[in-house]
């Protein structure tokens, strides 16, 4: 363990002080002399070009950085000290093109291709959920991945507005179609809300994606559900995608498409802790939308989930 | 099923676009050529004349309309597609007189009398809880109704401020006194908070109204409680009144008289789903107060509950 | 004057009641039987696809509709009663494609081409400032227009992010290049804020566009400046574009790119009143961004400006 | 000067500490042993029963008390030390009946009749503008009063909603009709906004009430306008009524019927200072509506105006 | 029971009216003629001098007073009527010195020493958690106390910022060191969040303080945990300290150091009710920070907890 | 000019992207290899230990950094390009001790002593106004400075709370007493609000400090007042201290001690531009308090003022 990759302690410098980086880690952007040493890179992806309803996820990374300066060094619930185990750093933000969706898709894939080539595992702070697609294009280049997906929505729709293929409601349909995900190793947890129709679920069924609605989660218990999820994901390389609207809007109001009836914040944390042992090649927390976030509650929740994800990645 | 009564899909027109009507249904006010075809009418009642504490429920209907444009066509949890089963429409608002309580009571009863005469079943977006009284006067003209009542408060008080009979704390006392409700078929669920005294509960006991405090709901489980509620309401014509302050203020902050210790949003939905099979002659969601609603969370919850009510009415 | 096109009075139905249309006018969308009778159509354009900074203008039309229900029938300052003079209506919203910028540009131009063909003059509630470009493509098909442009920014930039041509910082550069505007008849009023460089102003100078910085406005007086503006616009057909960030952010916080140092709300109104006599073929109020609007102040200001524009269009 | 009626200093006890009374003065309600010694009584009137649009002024007195604890002992601009010159006290609130308008009118008049009988001059913190009517009924019992009235609206309308006589849009029509005001000694300053019609202004003209629109105020200058106002009010007993919506909503967002285009906060103070020398028998600040007050700005402005009024009353 | 110590009823005077005291009780500050009659005194301690992260708890007492005026006379869940059982009063605020931490510690201890000498049991509304230390210095002068402590944090740290001994993260370390608490009779409930290290828990273990993490609370059930807590506290004199950040931030956002994963509001109440029978010599609710409190939810929760504490103290 | 010290352009990377530093400049903390090259260092001082009323200025630097990423490279009003003229950098934050005022005073003075020794001129983002004192102790070590001071308050009080010498109401009294300021070269502009007494002004008079109340500023005109200010400051080394409460709270609500009646945002900028030519050895913007800042307006204003100050420092 290098002391270079340690966060600043709130015991030394108050947590409201200093230039805010993710979890107060050093800022090591591509090109930085220590970039090659990084094992896990936390990346901001400030983009909401695929948003069909309320925008603002482009402001997510900055709000998550700000909130994350309240994170301390140790996960008291599990005893994990991520910054001791791995060299972690804030890699900065991927630069999007807010006025050109296709250009941004390419920029993101290029960024993550380089990152993967450097041997860094990414933990991404989104961004809307379309963000996951160009990341998967980089990470799943060689073989399809499994995925544990926490969300209120399946994001498996065919298209919107008369055929538009790329929105935040379609990334995993595209990913399956492009062979980036192995649908048999994909599980979607917490699905709920009103539906346009059953077209997304029909697609899931047809391809073997396991969809677990919120009612089933609550009735069976989260522990039981997560055991099944671990079995589905199995031992292969797996991506974890965590849409903040998985959590109930009382706990996570700052998101574009809230759906009532979700889990509370403790369950929101504990389902992540259950992922320990998974071969996680990358993870993301998406759809934090600060303009709709009353008092920063969602950013703080999102930062806490980023930390939980980091603890199961190390 | 007529295509005339279908909501606009968010797949065609984004959900933030368009003049906002309830659930994006057509606006069919009294006098409209299609009024007679409506089976279930969603009505706004923008009035808070009976409010003894924090006002603002007069703004409820507009906020509920706005939020309800995020509702899609199908209840994914139950499979119900209400707009396919019944001809539903937004009937517009009843016009209140904000400076004359007695005049408003008369206006509302007149409005619902006409509506009932046209064979429309009303789903009302309030308004404070006094709203239910003039509605009941129209709907229960011929025979007393049963009632399933979700609330933190019994609203069974005798009077306020030295004898004022009509406030949002008294509607169901008046309704029992006027023979609009059959107290033996009335159940009040979720009652909690500090009390002035036991006068309201004494009245309930004396007349056979069943009051189920929140502690009992949680300890027995909502399923068990709702079974009892269904038994109490029985097979006769029943009104459902849903005060948004039934739900915990973390989930529904925008209300005039919040009481901590209520159910979460999933239970808030599921208790309504349990009403399937009831003979519902009318229903309301009341006490959504937008000026106290941080970020519109309560409006969104209220709109979601309106949709659940609609799904058990069709 | 037809009584069909009169707004509902707050003396009859309280202003918080009813389905909210612009200024409580009848909703007459394309295809409606009375569409051909409309003289001035208020149109919502819920789109922010060109936004390079803080998004949210897609929610502008709904917030403007809501606020505009506080508008009454007469302009007390000028005595104008617009709804008596012209048949005005709320035409509804143009349907954008939030995930496809080029598709939206085409949709908007098509919509306004039909509207112009029907002989309706449009008053548009945006949307971000890129909205003006597809409108101008429809309205200036036959001859270039003059323009009075209130804004903190010139919106004359060449491109962003390595060559992206269409953003809310470029519409009038494009419009000049496409021959939609006669630069000699264009005046930009209230320009201020920090600058990337002088490239936009160089373009203005080269083409004869008159740019009046805020300091000059305040030092000369708004009356004097508006006299010059009227002279520049002259007698030909003219478009009026009013970016809400023209106004100081204390009065209009809800916008994507606020710049301090702008006019107060009285001057914001009075500059519009000075346009009486201009041959206005269309007008817009853009960049109202509700997610950044504390308490709806900007929506109310924007609705008031829409009304002032309507009064000089009739 | 008695030390009994001195406010607590922020130099001794921080201004955020202590039970909040108006300006940190002693709480001397009716019945208190020192009630008879009070010369100027600050009274809260927590009532918004006459509000036709956005409610919440019932919460005004509490918010004004809270904000007023930031007031210090001396008016630095004029040198006046009101608490040294007169025995001032917080008299508490008049108890309204929120569900009965007519009952409240009587309660208020009774309260102020007793207060006047005790020789106390009242400075009232409203409450909506209907509050002024029952106060005038008590204070103008013996002879009509002059009035200096700061407002965006004339509040001279005949009635609302098919004949309702008592709303916050009608108090001064009623007061003139009841002989409580001498219309020749009434001046209304800052009038603006859209209008239902000219019916209120016709009434003003017919009775000799001077209405000064905001444009005239700004064009002539506030000093000149206030000279005229002082002349109109003359030397007789005069009431001062200050509707917080007189001030521009950027400075006073927390009110029920905001109208853009009003004065800034410095002019809002200075017009009051111009009243020095007037024979003020009572004054009020009304229409502060905390539920619509972003961050308490309006309460702080209102408290500052209360202090300015106190300084010209001593 | 004296009628002198009864709160004003909302049935008589609306709850938004009147000078706000805790639970609408009479204001009986030290020196007041009835001070000696008080049995339980509710005290405000407006101080946040020990706060290492987000400040604002100095505004807690005022917000808690304001919210507490919605409390009624009876605890409907337990039937307790505290104001009938004991003479309760609002004693006002302890005057802190916001710019001198050591001076404030002394002022607070002096205040509570006098209060204890007068035979009053204090229920304190903080203030940050350092507040508990000077209170304990007064109440535990003669013998160490037991303590039931609800919190997300142990507040047992040694020091901050290079040795600073007095912060809101250290009070109970100091209290144990000073012999004010008997560590064997101390239980800390709900502990969670990331940790600097294990130094605080090592101290707890070394001294026999029982720390119950949130996961254990939820997995065992609150009833079981509270049984253990009652056993630990035993029959001796006990202090109850309730940090509002014990509760999940969805329910209590207005606090300086929120930690997700806490209990909901019903459990937040019920754990207090379990304390019935304890020999409570004093209690506090701390860390309510109004500047971070969206819509006053935390103040209302805190006021409700103060009432629950009062009900187990009588 | 080195390309090393250039800010990132919003034309390349959207302004909402990236780790936020002041004006998107490189982060060059003490110890950094390029520290010695910096000519003007922007420093955060996150401290509010001297605040006697509403706290939160400790969060100022982070909010100012965030807002400042909207600043572009050129001052369009004056043509100044500060980053071309001088090597500017974000030096990071001074580490305060939030629980020990005296310790923090020493830390700050030590930090600025080193900075001055390195030949860097500091532009500080506070922090409350006590921040200026330890800065002056470092910068005025060798000779007293002149000062241009924009503020609503003189900050010349002797002491608070029974003799506390160090609060945000006393820094310049201390600075004069310690010989850090030459009172004859000090001018205080915009003074207003209620006063405890005249003790601060008597001190000013006795020492020759020129106090210009807001009324005089407005009546004479800001240009005339600034001419006098420049004359007072003269040609010697001068400090500029800008308390954000100088500006009217409609424009700058996020501050601890707002006073209505201040200048608008354009005058707030223009008075700084008038300082061109002054020998500025350091400057600060203080009292931005994000917890009280509705929508970030004050942070944006403060960042804009920082930029204006930078432009007159280069």
Automatic annotation (TrEMBL), chains A, B, C, D, E, F:
Binds 2 manganese ions per subunit. This is Agmatinase. Pfam families: Arginase. It comes from the Bacteria. PANTHER family: ARGINASE/AGMATINASE, GUANIDINO ACID HYDROLASE, MITOCHONDRIAL. Belongs to the arginase family. Agmatinase subfamily. It is an enzyme of class 3 (hydrolase). The lineage of its organism: Bacteria, Pseudomonadati, Pseudomonadota, Alphaproteobacteria, Rhodobacterales. Keywords: Hydrolase, Manganese, Metal-binding. Its EC number is 3.5.3.11. One of its GO terms (molecular function) is metal ion binding. The gene is speB.
